[in-house]
Each structure stands twice: as structure tokens, then as C-alpha cells.
Amino acid sequence: MKGKIIKGIAGFYYCYVEGYGLYECKAKGIFRKDDIKPLVGDDVRIEVLDESQKKGNIVEICKRKNTLIRPNVANVDQALIIFAVAHPDPNFDLLDRFLIMMLQQGVETIICFNKKDLVDKETLDKYSLPYLKGNYKIIYTSTKTNEGLDELESLLSNKTTVLAGPSGVGKSSIINKLCPDADMEVGDISKKLKRGRHTTRHSEIFHVKHDTYIIDTPGFSSLEVRDIEKEDLQNYFPEFIEYNNQCRFVGCLHITEPDCAVKEALSEDKISNVRYESYKSLIDYIDSQKKYY
Ligand SMILES: Nc1nc2c(ncn2[C@@H]2O[C@H](COP(=O)(O)OP(=O)(O)OP(=O)(O)O)[C@@H](O)[C@H]2O)c(=O)[nH]1
Ligand SMILES: [Mg+2]
Ligand SMILES: [Zn+2]
């Protein structure tokens, strides 16, 4: 039977087979010699050892479409980053770092602003404009009024989407709306912040509908930008790309150089100031990391 690893705990892999349910499986030694470790998201072939107990063995890992390092999961089609528009306020620095991290791994990101019910349209526009200039797909949702949830479901259809976002933004609430069977714990944000950790601690996949999965990952409160040279950072800001090669100097960093096309686009508001500032602070960050080598 063909299934998908939806969760791995203490040497057991839980494989979901559409139409049959969940099997608790072990991975036999065969993978070790090839140095492949089964990952959440893997499509696998299993042999059933005991149907009544739902136990089996993983006998084959199908060829992976891709492998993400952070989070460490396989076969991801896209990412959905969720921020609340309020309670807690969005952290754009974190958002920008996440977008870069996903671009580095070749995965497209949809930005979801949740808790739309808490702010007016002006605030939503203010938050999203910088990202629209970068051609990011943005969606607004509320699990209180159900706005945007149908659109979200259609964006997820026939794909495996990795979900991410800081604590308290409503990830579990959204999963519960999309797949009521998930029955995830939803917590009060003041309690969450006090406790200082996320409810979700392992990556886990939820089956939304046929051929549609979402991967819930442990939330994060900080992200490091790694393995990017200062000169390459501009390539991770999609709205810069059409200007990057029009500057007077080859290798222009768009900071102090004269005749810079990116700064010109900035002055014409084709690139948002928020994103440009974020770019500059990441350049400083990369510089500060260099000092320690
Ligand atoms: N007003 C409003 N509150 C929401 C919405 N979605 C979720 N909440 C509330 O926000 C709080 C946090 O929601 P969760 O779904 O637990 O957040 P989470 O992102 O899963 O948090 P972690 O598991 O800690 O990472 C709860 O009190 C929810 O009821 C929304 O659309 N509008
Ligand atoms: Mg949660
Ligand atoms: Zn420039």
C-alpha cells in the first residue's frame, strides 16, 4: 500500500493511507545503508503486518520532490506563513526572514494575515502593500467570521503546504477549520506567552481532503538568515530583481552607491520603504556575522 508519513515519534512512523487510515510503522534497516532517514512528508510503500492493530513496515521511500532543512520535511509544494494582524502584532522582520529562507529552499510562500476581524481595511492595506510590490500572494482570514477560509482552501487544493508562524497567530485555529477531525488545542495567547513555548512541538501532517495536506510545524520566534553573501541578498527580494542590473555599478549593493536603480525605484515608491529598510538591516546583520570568522 502507498501512504504518506504524517508524523514520526521515537522510531515509529505514522503512515496515512487514503481510504484505510493510519498505520504505525517501523523503518527496517534497508534505509540505513543508503543513509536515508524517513521524513515527515515522505511518500512510502508499506507492508501491513497486522491489519487489526494497524501495524506495518515501511519498505520503500518514494523519490522525493524536495527536502526542506528547516523545517525538516519532504515533498513540500508551497509554504503558508501566518501572521495575525493584531494580538500579537505582525513581526515583519521575521516575515522577511522566513520569505528569504523559503526562497533559498526553492519553495513559494503565500502570506496569510489572520484575525482580519480585529482591524480595519486601511491597516490590512498598509501591511500588505510592501509585499504586493514583491508579487507575493496574500490572503486575509478570520477564524471568527470565516472570511477568507474558502479562498485559503482552494489555494491549498491538491498540494502539500507547510504552515509556519509565531505562537498565538491562529495556526491551530485555521487547521481546525480546514480539517475539523484535527481537533487541535487552541490556546489563549496570554497563557501561551507566559508559558513561552508552542503547543506544537513536532512537525505533523493533516489530511485536508483528497491529495491535499498541510504540515503543522513547531512555531518559531526567531530565524537566522544563513549562507547568504551580502552581494546575493538582493536576489531574495523579488521586487528588486528588475532593477538590480540597471545600476551604474556592477555589484551595486544599493546602499551608498550613486546612480542606483533600486534607490530610484524606492523614491518612486515602486519598492516599499519597509522592505528596503529590512534589506538594509539584513545587510548589517550579515556584516556583523562576518566579524566572527
Ligand atoms: N479575533 C480572532 N482571534 C483568533 C482568530 N484565530 C485564532 N484566534 C485566537 O487566537 C488565539 C491563539 O490561537 P491558536 O490557534 O492557538 O494559535 P497558534 O498559532 O496555533 O499558536 P501556537 O500553537 O502556540 O503556535 C486563540 O485565543 C484563538 O481563539 C481570528 O481569526 N480572530
Ligand atoms: Mg497551535
Ligand atoms: Zn543599486
Protein model, in words:
The chain is of the alpha/beta class. The protein folds into three domains: 2-61, Nucleic acid-binding proteins (OB fold (Dihydrolipoamide Acetyltransferase, E2P), Beta Barrel); 78-216, Rossmann fold, CATH 3.40.50; 230-290, Ribonucleotide Reductase Protein R1, domain 1. 28% of the residues lie in helices and 24% in strands. It contains nine helices and eleven strands. Bound molecules: guanosine-5'-triphosphate (GTP), magnesium ion and zinc ion (ZN).
**How is the biggest beta sheet arranged?**
6 strands, mixed
For the biggest β-sheet, the strand order reads 8-7-6-9-11-10
- Write the element-wise H/E pattern from the N-terminal end onward: EEEHEEEHEHEHEHHEEHHH
The level of helicity is 25-40%
Supply the CATH superfamily name of the largest domain: P-loop containing nucleotide triphosphate hydrolases
Protein structure class: alpha/beta
The overall strand count is 11
Whole-number tally of structural domains: 3
Number of helices: 9
Corresponding CATH architecture of the largest domain: 3-Layer(aba) Sandwich
Give the C-alpha Rg: 21 Å
Q: In percent terms, what proportion of residues is strand? A: 15-25%
What is the residue-mean pLDDT, rounded to a whole number?
A: 90
According to CATH, what is the class of the largest domain? Alpha Beta
Ligand inventory: guanosine-5'-triphosphate, magnesium ion, zinc ion
Model regions low in confidence, pLDDT < 50 over at least 5 residues: none
Write down the overall geometry: globular
* CATH-derived topology of the largest domain: Rossmann fold
Distance between the termini: 50 Å
